[in-house]
């Protein structure tokens, strides 16, 4: 266990949550009984929801909610046992609506749900090494119909291009307006979607011509970082531990998962790639890739990429960023911001 914790801290820069981070409700008439609450829960646990009644009121009934979803009703002051197995990782916001003497009062609290999965240490093998434009501040990398596309950041220098990864020959490049900081890209239904960083703006292009067809505004107040898709939905990161699920038809953000490695959330989730049913995730400023379960958000594997730094001419600020899966070769391409090389790799346990 100690070896696993050390590995996670080195590779992913975990931010450990504060111990006992259980929030009491401000209501003084009724409160959640937190005496039996654990510091952290997993999806295998049950949560006993109960109310303290310090003023000895006669309670008619209690309606219990988890994350604003009604989960059960009890007559009198009875407690409710809630199964956590179907909950997504992260904080679970608890609410109890207590009915008494023709009135009602609300109590709130929260508990943290963490992962019980111990990530496997995965290894990689370099299959090929290719040139990479050292002037490219890589934000997104993706294959579309056997051709590699790359998007870059920095205001006044953001662009995306399609090119021959073997030679570096550029087939076409589109420069963004200088007010935008380009971020992740993904291709779905013959469209190319692109995010911007803090402008809360995205673009949709014709995948064949790369002509702009639509500009959209994010439906949540978040930043734009990485982007990928599973063939039906688009997923994007925002620089926190969240990965958002988005409807490609109207760009509405539908839901999110929180990325956890063991008992700790992984912040600064960046570039994303959906590979064989898993998210492969760059963590900003870390020479590692996390393999994430797209349903629960649990980190299932960690790839230590630090060895690549010995093979490139970069500064510490030139961070690993850029993951593209080539379905034709069944290999993964990785690079970084202002790296002079790109690597084609395979991954195994």
Quickly list its features.
8-stranded mixed sheet; Coagulation Factor XIII, Chain A, domain 1; 349 residues; 3% helix; 30 strands; 4-stranded antiparallel sheet; Methylamine Dehydrogenase, Chain H; mainly beta; single chain
Unreliable segments of 5+ consecutive residues: 14-26
Binned strand content = over 45%
Q: Provide the CATH architecture of the largest domain.
A: 7 Propeller
Output mean pLDDT. 91
The tally of strands reads: 30
Q: Going across the major beta sheet, what is the strand order?
A: 24-25-26-27-9-30-29-28
Give the termini distance in whole angstroms: 18 Å
Task: Describe the structure concisely.
This protein is mostly beta strands and 349 residues long. It contains one helix and 30 strands. The protein has one helix at residues 2-12; strands at residues 31-32, 46-49, 51-52, 59-66, 69-75, 80-83, 90-100, 103-113, 120-131, 138-144, 147-152, 159-163, 170-175, 182-188, 191-196, 201-206, 212-217, 227-229, 234-237, 242-246, 253-258, 260-261, 264-265, 269-275, 278-283, 288-292, 299-304, 320-326, 331-336, 341-348.
Task: Provide an overview of this structure.
With 349 residues, the chain is mainly beta. It folds into two domains: 20-113, Coagulation Factor XIII, Chain A, domain 1 (Distorted Sandwich); 120-348, YVTN repeat-like/Quinoprotein amine dehydrogenase (Methylamine Dehydrogenase, Chain H). The protein has one helix and 30 strands. It has one helix at 2-12; strands at residues 31-32, 46-49, 51-52, 59-66, 69-75, 80-83, 90-100, 103-113, 120-131, 138-144, 147-152, 159-163, 170-175, 182-188, 191-196, 201-206, 212-217, 227-229, 234-237, 242-246, 253-258, 260-261, 264-265, 269-275, 278-283, 288-292, 299-304, 320-326, 331-336, 341-348. The strands form eight sheets. An eight-stranded mixed beta sheet has the order 24-25-26-27-9-30-29-28, with helices on one face. A four-stranded antiparallel beta sheet has the order 5-4-7-8, with no helix packed on it. Strands 10-11-12-13 form a four-stranded antiparallel beta sheet, with no helix packed on it. A hairpin with a 4-residue loop joins strand 18 and strand 19. The longest helix has 11 residues, at 2-12. The model is unreliable at 14-26 (pLDDT under 50).
């Amino acid at each position: 266990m100690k070896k696993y914790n050390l590995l996670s801290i080195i590779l992913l820069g975990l931010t450990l949550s504060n111990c006992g981070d259980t929030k009491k409700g401000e209501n003084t008439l009724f409160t959640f009984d937190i005496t039996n609450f654990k510091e952290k829960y997993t999806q295998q646990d049950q949560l006993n929801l109960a109310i303290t009644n310090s003023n000895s009121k006669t309670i008619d009934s209690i309606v219990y909610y988890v994350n604003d979803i009604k989960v059960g009703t009890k007559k009198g002051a009875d407690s409710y046992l809630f199964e956590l197995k179907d909950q997504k990782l992260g904080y679970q916001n608890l609410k109890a609506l207590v009915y008494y003497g023709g009135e009602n009062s609300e109590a709130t609290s929260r508990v943290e749900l963490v992962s019980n999965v111990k990530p496997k240490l995965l290894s990689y093998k370099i299959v090929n090494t290719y040139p990479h434009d050292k002037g490219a501040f890589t934000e997104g990398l993706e294959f579309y119909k056997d051709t590699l596309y790359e998007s870059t950041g920095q205001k006044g220098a953001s662009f995306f291009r399609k090119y021959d990864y073997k030679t570096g020959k550029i087939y076409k490049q589109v420069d963004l307006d200088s007010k935008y900081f380009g971020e992740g890209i993904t291709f779905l239904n013959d469209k190319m979607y692109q995010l911007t960083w803090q402008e809360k703006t995205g673009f949709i292009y014709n995948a064949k011509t790369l002509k702009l067809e639509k500009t959209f505004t994010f439906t949540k107040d978040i930043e734009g970082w990485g982007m990928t898709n599973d063939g039906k939905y688009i997923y994007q990161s925002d620089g926190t531990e969240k990965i958002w699920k988005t409807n490609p038809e109207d760009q509405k953000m539908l839901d999110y998962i929180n990325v956890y490695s063991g008992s700790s959330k992984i912040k600064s989730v960046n570039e994303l790639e959906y590979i064989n049913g898993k998210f492969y995730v760059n963590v900003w400023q870390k020479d590692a890739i996390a393999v994430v379960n797209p349903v629960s958000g649990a980190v299932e594997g960690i790839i230590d990429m630090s060895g690549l730094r010995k093979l490139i001419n970069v500064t510490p600020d030139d961070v690993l960023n850029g993951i593209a899966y080539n379905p034709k070769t069944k290999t993964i391409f990785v690079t970084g911001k202002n790296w002079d090389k790109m690597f084609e790799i395979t991954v195994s346990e």
